[in-house]
Amino acid sequence: MRGFGGSCDHDAVNIWLAELIVRHTHRVPAPEGPRGDGAAAARRFDAALMSAGFKLSRDLMAALSGLSEPAVLGVAGRTLPVVREMAGDHVPHNVYFRDFPNNVPDTLEFWTDLLRETLLDPVAASAATESLSEGVLNLLTLPGYGVYRHTYEDMLAAHDELIAAAGDRVTVLHLGRALAAEGERLYLRLAGSATPLGEDGLAALRGLAGLYADGAQPAHIPVRENRALINEVRVMAGADPLVDTVTDVLRLACALSGGDVTLQEPTRFGSLPRPVRRSLLAALDGVVRADPGKLGDVAAWREPWKRLGERLHPHEYPRWPRAADVFAVARGEKRAPSFAARIEARLAAGDVAGAARAATGAPGLLFRSLDRLLRGAPDAEHAVLAAAESVAHRVSGRVLLSVREHLLNRAAATGKVRVFANRFGRGTTAPDTRAPLDPGTVARLSAFLDAEIRGRLPSAGHLVVDPDALDLALPLSGKAAGHGLGVLPRGSVSPVSGELLRFFVYWRQRERRTDFDLSALMLDENYLDPEWLSYTNLTTAGGRHSGDITDAPEGASEFIDLSLRRVGARFIIPQVNIFAGEGFEEVEESFFGFMLRDRAQRGRPFEARTVRMKSELRGPGRVALPMVFMRGDDGRWRAKWMHLHLRGGMEFNRVEGNRVTTSMLVRGIVERRFLTVGYLKDLVDAEKTSLWDGTAPDGPVTYIGLDRPEGLHADSRVFTPENLGDLIPA
Q: Per the confidence metrics, is the pTM higher than 0.70?
């Protein structure tokens, strides 16, 4: 672990690291401090946690009880703010209608009363009359609309205390190892992740790399973005970067210039110190010297390479001539066709088998092109499959699983809707017009992929799976999923229990007046017959809207309350529309979530221990679609996770305006089959497999569930949503 300059910096880093570990692992690093009788303080800490839906494990409670009271209070002071933020309880949640969900007026009644108040106010009436003289009155500009008309304290006083219920969420915080060991374990997990990390994961990895990049490393760093962040630290420390493609070096240069290592956004390359320039050029020379074919990757990023060449001055370093070749290719002075170009040339000539053989030099590209190649010429199917089978061992587990999931949805694709989602989660749909694949070919390829994936999965010993985790989708990418509490991968299905379903959104603007609108669209079994709850329709379909807030300099919240017994629709789709102002990536803070509670619980509009999910809102779209709630034929409700955005307009986005696009996306996600934990469970080589029944086995197990239960053997391997990506084989 890298050292620090002074005690103040050391303390700050330790606090940051401890908070990061709690947020990402639900473990509290083994507490340190003077011994003493901290039992009473530990119980107070536990009680405070329970108000936010968290609790200390028995082992953690015992460890804290053996410390002095000041030491326990120190741990509590660091941990409580983190878990409250995880649940969205770190900010006050006021509502426009003070008594919500009670006494919410009918929409027409609300506007009539507001207009009456305006006309009774001489100043406001004069402004309204002037507006009416021009033939129009914008109801959204009426005084008193869109701003809180009572204080947060007034709202709290209008509500009874929450009555505890057995169904309230309890997230257990477990005892971890020492701080440095926990930090290293988190670093190795993030650095060695088999799937791309989301924004929060990348930020955590960048910070952890500064502490651990010169120590133990994962055996393999498959995600190139992760490798770029680690290489940034290594190069600045004078170590050689870990690269095996020219694009690795380009990503590293972007990281060193504070740019986008995903290469999706242009990077303005800064002036690089001479030692750094030498390191980059030496790395380029080594990659090309080992495999000149790697020059074919340059054309995909021609313009960034040109700009980088202006900073690296390769002509000044004749000892690395292969590095100069990279920039010659970028400038068009040297020809180096990419694998994609070679494949396209053969396809254009009608040589599908030749295209497949050429693609064996780029196995990942071959597997991502399999559907197209198999459709290209039925008489070449055997050659295409043989080419794929010959290089499958060189393809990442994530790509193999992606192709296997693709085949799940390919066998009966006629008439289906295809959903396309980019790395930001922006979703679009299109009819599936592709020619069908031969069922025998699909069966052969599926069986081969199952065998290849099975061979990469480690032996599990005794495998124990929580039944509620069987429908968790494998996280083949973490890009679009926001971080938070209870967030599951796109396509995951989780049970919904409780009488009342309550959505919430919170946002705090940075510079401009910003209006987020929480809405809920409801559709029948054919994805038709829309109804909605929004600021334009406050009470309908068994639900109530808390009222519209149009300005959030100090933060604002909106809620929707639904009685699941009274909703007649088959699908409920919550959405957040940006009506005006800053986007999801511009505001100071924004998040969405939902709560479940029993009708008798009462309580405030926001109660942290009833929060089942809270996720940061991020993405360039102007409409967020986090999830869909589905009522099955058995009458039970389940949630399916979407993590999608619509582009929307710059202003005036409303649920009424996007209901057709939303219904198409929902249909695409609902009807799509995803690879799940259940799929992997059937492939894993286990001595024994059992479903969790609430009783912990005596010995070590491999456990997969929504949370780590109490009582598991200390040597057990545990997979929960926080580290579900670790199930993806390399």
A: yes
